[in-house]
Amino acid sequence: MSIAVISTGTELLRGTVLNTNFAFLGRELTRRGLAIRLGLTAGDRAPEIHTAFAEALAEADTVIVSGGLGPTRDDITLDAAARFFGLELETVPELEDKISAFWKLRHTGRVPKPMLRQARAPHGAKILPNPNGSAPGFRIDTLYAGRARRVYLLPGPPREFEPMVCESLLPDLDGIADTGTREHTIGFLAAGEPEFLLQVRLEKALEGRPVELAYCATPCGTRVFVSGSDPEAVRDAAEVARKEAGPLALEFGELELAAALLAELRRRDWKLVTAESCTGGMISAALTAVPGSSAVYRGGAVVYSNELKQLLLGVSRELLDAHGAVSAECAGAMADGATSRLGGDCAIAVTGIAGPDGGSAEKPVGLVYIGVRAGERRVVEKFLFRGNRDTVRERAAGSALLLLHRLLQENQVDSVTGA
């Protein structure tokens, strides 16, 4: 099975909305050994959608389309698809009843005519139920260039799209996919490893093996994906890749350092606290995005001003006057203060200059100090990140998680001083 995905919506092309549907679909298909061959984005105009259909159908036998099935004027995907495949749109009484009932749950009065446009279905199409919205989805079985094709049309809102993928699309694909052609993928995070240097090592170590490698650089390291048709060959190659990635590499399937950190701390029955200045809560956000994080992460303080560093963390005025807020001494004191005042067994503290202003010759934009504590061990490191404000903050947050990860690894504690 070869799959192409078309995401419709002019808002996606303008950058005002992130295409989370594509990312979600890619993850779910990969888990089932199904790979996307081509991804396209088309605006809400029939010629653009037709062009996308032609390109997708030339590359794949299965096309999944998201967006453009609602009642508004720019929801034209259904009409464009019907015109492209030469199918009549027929009003389905059962859909009219469902849409009317859905409307009356939230509104009074008659159902507007535009809402009932969603009761139309392409002739011969299979209707895919949408339990969270008014617009149904469809599966169209057709011929294109003399070959059988399957086309799935799904609503665009993520709260509707994601359940329909799990409840309708994936079971349907599982029923028709050839198990012999599935692609097996194993991924892991090579924490602390830069993408290019890691690629050079892995390509050499896995030369000649029947697998494909893919990489994704993150502020915490490089995500590595090993894929192939033979599950044993993929597993063997992934073992080699993970060993080559070094002792900081996470277990198979672990792609987020925050989740791995919390799992390690849970095993030790330790509590984590944070103190953030230039990252402004980004580390806290990464930690609390992990389900169940409250069992380990107690919380943190965003201390942007010197006054709050003193008031909340106990950083002394004398230290700040002597060394400044952006200093190794301040980062260490923030980690100590967070541990003692917020009640943690370990702590992360970050202070720096994210820019674009505020830098000097002695302390340029991008200068960041990170302090971490784990029990009685503490380490503070200096970083100089290049890039704009967002990049500096993202790299600082990622590096902070990585530094604690390193500190927690047995026999991997470098430059640790007593608190």
Word description of this protein:
The chain folds into three domains: 179 residues, MoaB/Mog-like domain (Molybdenum Cofactor Biosythetic Enzyme, Chain A, 3-Layer(aba) Sandwich), CATH 3.40.980; 62 residues, Alpha-Beta Plaits; 162 residues, Maf protein (Alpha-Beta Complex), CATH 3.90.950.20. It is built from 15 helices and 17 strands. A six-stranded mixed beta sheet has the order 2-1-3-8-7-6, with helices on both faces. The protein has a six-stranded mixed beta sheet with strand order 13-12-14-15-16-17, with helices on both faces. Helix 2 runs parallel beside helix 7, helix 3 packs across helix 4 and helix 8 crosses helix 9. It is globular. The C terminus is likely disordered.
